[in-house]
Each structure stands twice: as C-alpha cells, then as structure tokens.
Amino acid sequence: MLVLLLLHAVVLGLPSARAAEDACASACPAACACSSVERGCSVRCDRAGLLRVPAEFPCEAASIDLDRNGLRFLGERAFGTLPSLRRLSLRHNNLSFITPGAFKGLPRLAELRLAHNGDLRYLHARTFAALGRLRRLDLAACRLFTVPERLLAELPALRELAAFDNLFRRVPGALRGLANLTHAHLERSRIEAVASSSLLGLRRLRSLSLQANRVRAVHGGAFRDCGALEHLLLNDNLLAVLPADAFRGLRRLRTLNLGGNALGLVARAWFADLAELELLYLDRNSIAFVEEGAFQNLSGLLALHLNGNRLTVLAWAAFQPGFFLGRLFLFRNPWRCDCHLEWLRDWMESFGRAADVPCASPGSVAGLDLRQVAFGRSSDGLCVDPEELNLTASSPGPPPEPVATTVSRFSSLLSKLLAPRAPLGEAANTTEGPGNASLSDSLPSRGVGRSGRKTPFLLGSGLLLSLAQHVFVLQMD
Questions:
Q1: DSSP collapsed to 3 states, 241-295
Q2: In angstroms, rounded to a whole number, what is the distance separating the alpha carbons of residues 291 and 268?
Q3: I want to staple 96 with a disulfide (CB 3.0 to 4.6 A). Which of 6, 119, 248, 356 is the partner?
C-alpha cells in the first residue's frame, strides 16, 4: 500500500516539475541561460555584454548572476517583482549609481554581491531599505570612501559583510549596533585606527579581519562588546604598541594574528583573558623582549609564531606557571645560544615541536642549530656557556712563501753588510762600492788615516741595516 502511495505521489509530481521547467525557460532573457534548480530557477547572464538589466526575469527565479557585464545604473525596481529570489550577483560591472529602491520587489533576497564596481564610491542611506532578510552583503573593491550610518541599520538580519579593498580610513560607523553580524571583512581599506567606539554592539561577531590596513592604534577596550569573537586578524599593519587592555574580554578568541607589525616587545597583560587561544601569530615584528608570564594563560595554544623578530633569548618564565606544548616557530631570529636557552634545547629534544633555531652567537656555536649545542657542567652541576673561540680579527698578511723570501733577502743583505771590507782600491770595482762611497762622502771626515775610513763605513752600514729592517717590517705588515 505504501509503495502505491509513493508511486502516485511521483506521478502527480511530474507534471508540476515539467511545468516549472517550462516556465523557467519560457521567460528567460535572450542573453541569459536559465535552468531549473531544487528551489526554483537559476538565471545565468554573466559575460553577456549587457549594458542594462533585462526587462523581465522568470517569476520563479531563485538566483540571478549578472557578473562581468557593462551595467552602469540601477533604477527603481530594477528587477521587478521576484518573490522567490534569494541570491543576486552584480560583481565586476561599471555601476556608478544605485537608486534608492532599486531592490524593491525582492522580499526574500538573502545574498547580494556588488563587489568590484570601482566607480560606485557612494551609497545612499536607503539603498537597501527593502532587504529586511539580507544575510550576506559583498561591497568589496567598490572604492567606497564611507558607509552611511543608517545604510546597514536597514539590514537587521545581516550576518556577513565583505567590505575589503575600499578607502574607509576608519572602521565604518555603520557597523555599530548590528546585533546579528557574525563576520566582517575590512582588510586593505586604509583604516588607520580601531577606536573604543568602533565596534559597539557587535555582540555576535565571531570573525573580524582588519589585516593589511594602516592601523597604528588600537584603543583600550576597543573589543569590549565582542565577547563572541573567535578570530581577530590585525596582521600587516603599523602597530608599534598596544594598550594593556587591548584584548580584554575576548575569552572565546581562538586565533589572534599580530604578525607583520612593528611591535618591539610582548607584554604580559595582552593575553591575560585569552584562555581559549589556539593560534597566536607574532611573526615579522621587531620583538626583542618577551615579558615574564606573557604566555602563562595560553595552556590550549596549538601554535606560537615568533619567527622573523629580533629575539636573542626566550625565557622559560614567559610560559610560567603553565608550560607550552604546542608548535613553536622561532626561525629568523638572532639567537644567543647560551645557558639561557638550555631549557629550550631540552624541550625541543623531548617534544620535537620546534625546529630551525639557528644560533647567531656566541662565536663557538654560530651557525649551528640549537639542538646541536652541547652545554658543559661545572663541578657543582651548573650550566656552562659554550666557550667563545679565541679568534682575533686581523688584516690578512702575506702568504708564507713570500714572507720566507723576504726573510732570506734580509739575511743576505745583513750578511753582506757585516762581511769583511775589501781594500779601497778593490771597493771601486764592487757593486756596493758606489753606495758606500757616496755615504762616506756625505759624512764628516775625522782623519785621513785607517780609522778615518772606518767610521763612515760603520755609519753607512748602520743606516743600511736600519733601512733593511724598516723594509722588512713593512713587508711583514
């Protein structure tokens, strides 16, 4: 009996299905492609070269795609009355103006995509007045300078807002009071600060992206109304300091990204309330110091990114009284691998959840990974730092062979200077003679006898010896 009833229902349903399909196709605009879907009719008019909205759509239309056309203007009731329409996409057009009331007649619209209309720049406060059921709004890359205060107040059901790649300079005030908003994407919008009043009333907000802006300041208590926030992205901004209570009240936060800023230290007070935090990004900053106990409440942390900073030491006390058992990313830091990091080496060997900790100093271990460093022990069992290599920098000297040649030449010259002198008549026939004669001629004579000739010879020899020694020293240097 049950089988017969099911067959009867199927047979009765076939004509209505065919009728819906026929209706969807018969009213399809000429430049579009229409097909029946589970909840109505899908209309595809993307890349159709349209310069204006088609005059008529199938009444059963549940989704309309008008992406990548040349639409410039939306007039009053631009889409007529479509009681079943739930999704409308107008991305990558040339829209410059939307008449207030353009979306009247779309009472069930839940998703509206207006992204990549770079000439839009301004929206009237009543643009979305008729969209009481809208849940997703995409305004990305429209080069909007502002969002009117009441624009989003007309959207009580709004859950997700994508407004990245705009020209806001501040968090749009229109976000305040959106009690049902759960996701806000405001990245790359030139925002310069998060004020204490920017996010008031966003009690259900779970994800906020402010990455790649120009944020220099986060005011104290800026997120105090965002107790449901789970993911906060502030990476790639210009933050150099943070107030102690910057993240106070974010007890459900699971991801915090502060990478790519200009922070110089990590303060203990920042993460005091973040007991549920799982991912913490502090990479690509200028951090040189981590306060004692900075991570003490982060017992559930799965990954901590501290790579790309100026850290030379990381104290075990930073994790006290708990102990971090997640993944540590510490590469691209000038680590000093002395006894202050012995705990980290032992932890790496025990748990294997950190790698790439290259030592920059002391010189005896520079270039090694921390895991390769062996720490000595004193007689009373205390850790002994790796000994510095006793190397002194000096200018490179001449290679050994030329030095030996210089020494040989000096020895030869010295031997000739100290050799017995030939008689005066023979001296005129030697190579050394003219030099000695000239030297003797320049010196005062103390007589014409034997002793008078010996004195200039000794003085000349002394001068040559000093000259040879001077040349030798210069060559050795």
A1: CCCCCCCCCCCCCCEEECCCCCCCEECHHHHCCCCCCCEEECCCCCCCEECCCCC
A2: 6
A3: 119
Give Cβ neighbours of residue 216 (< 8 Å, ≥ 6 apart).
192, 193, 237, 238, 239, 240
Is residue 220 within 8 Å of residue 245, measured between CB atoms? yes
pTM for the full predicted model: 0.77
Burial 135-151 (b: 16+ CB within 10 A, else e): bbbbbbbbebebbbeeb
Residue 347's SS3 state is: helix
Using alpha carbons, select from 42, 36, 97 the residue that is nearest to residue 66.
Answer: 42
The token pair that represents 86 in the structure block: 């739930």
Q: Are 175 and 199 in contact (CB under 8 A)?
A: yes
Q: What torsion, rounded to 10 degrees, do the Cα atoms 459, 465, 470, 471 define? A: 130
Residue 63 is which amino acid?
S
What does the alpha-carbon distance between residue 236 and residue 6 come to, in Å, rounded to a whole number? 60
Q: 374, 380, 318: which is closest to 346 by C-alpha? A: 374
Report the distance separating Cα 464 and Cα 209, nearest Å.
83
- Give per-residue pLDDT as tens, 290-328: 999 999 989 889 999 999 999 999 999 998 877 777 899
Q: What is the DSSP letter of 63?
A: E
Over residues 143-182, the pLDDT tens digits come to: 999 999 899 998 999 999 999 999 999 999 999 999 999 9
Can you tell me which residue has the tokens 């003797």?
440
For 350-413, give the DSSP string.
HH--EE--BEEESTTTTTSBGGG---EE-TTS-EEPPPPP----------HHHHHHHHHHHHHH
Rounded CA-CA distance 189/463 in Å is 81
Cα 286 to its chain centre, rounded Å, is: 12
Segment 59-104, tens digit of pLDDT: 999 999 999 999 999 999 999 999 999 999 999 999 999 999 999 9
State the Cα–Cα distance between residues 343 and 351, nearest whole angstrom: 12
* Token pair listed for 159: 């859950």
Q: Pairing relation of β-strands 279-281 and 255-257?
A: parallel
Task: Report the 10 Å Cβ neighbour count for 43.
Answer: 27
Cross-strand bridge partners of residue 406: none
Closest CA to 266 of 317, 215, 224: 317
CA distance 366 to 387: 11
56, two tokens: 């008529």
- CB burial class (10 A; 0-12, 13-18, 19+) of residue 420? exposed
HSE-CB of 4 using CA atoms within 13 angstroms: 1
Strands (E), 229-384: 231-233, 255-257, 265-266, 279-281, 289-290, 303-305, 327-329, 335-336, 354-355, 359-361, 376-377, 383-384
Cβ neighbours of residue 10 closer than 8 Å, sequence gap 6 or more? none
